[in-house]
Known about the structure:
alpha/beta, D-Maltodextrin-Binding Protein, domain 2
Amino acid sequence: MIDPRQLDALAAVAEHGGFGPAAQSLKITLAAVSLRIKALEDQLGQRLLVRGKRVRATPAGQALLGHVKQVRMMEADLLAGLRGGEARAGERWQSLSVAINADSVAGWFLPGVAPLLARHHLLLEVVIDDQDHTHDALKSGDVLGCVTARADAMRGCVAEPLGVMRYRCVAAPAVAASCRSARRAVSPHKLLALPAVIFNRKDALQDAFLAQHFGLDQPAYPRHYVPAVEAFETAIELGMGWGMVPEQHLAKRPGLVEVLPGATVDVALYWQHWAHEPPSAQRLTRAVREAAAAQLAPMPDP
């Protein structure tokens, strides 16, 4: 048996990034936290934390932290069930952590899960990352589910197809016009001479667009980086450059026009989550599935 106080100490250190903040959150001494972690590592025969400027979990520590989160969620669900299922005034809130790409968060995810969160006293901790990298947070045990472009399920997880997020290459009218030749055809050379507006350095949608529609393999072009959805789309509207915007968002951006009309980049999204979920996580999975079905384009036929 693992001492639950030792697990609490491990979880607190991982959550707060250090032994001192963990001691404050647990209302015990720094020495007590250190002793509990050391005893746990001695019992398991391996290091669970890498000490440094910011403490981080080893792979063994990550696996144990995932176990702690599942146990805590199961306990919270058990208590909620004993009290009748629905949240009551003054009842303790339960936290769920998820990793999602920024376009999905505001576009369809939050509107789809908000009613569930209020009804069941659930708190959401959202980790924002590119859809090609969100699965890293699930693999490390930091989150219980992620919206990802990865179709193959990781060990101990399930990958459920959600739908397709469709992107179009857009720009302000003057920028789009400057990309065209005398015959009004889009000139890739003129396009590459202009800056692209890119969400962050993990964002590969622009390269995918150039590869799919012009046969260009990661060409060089000037780039702005604007890692916030609202600011990113505003930068394109202001004429700072061209960029890839979800089709769903364009209705709210009438000042943007397509650079290459009809050309899209489709990103298939999946919901990866633990194969054995406690009830609160199961409710979240159902809400995510329903929200995606209502807002995303259907998956293409295999």
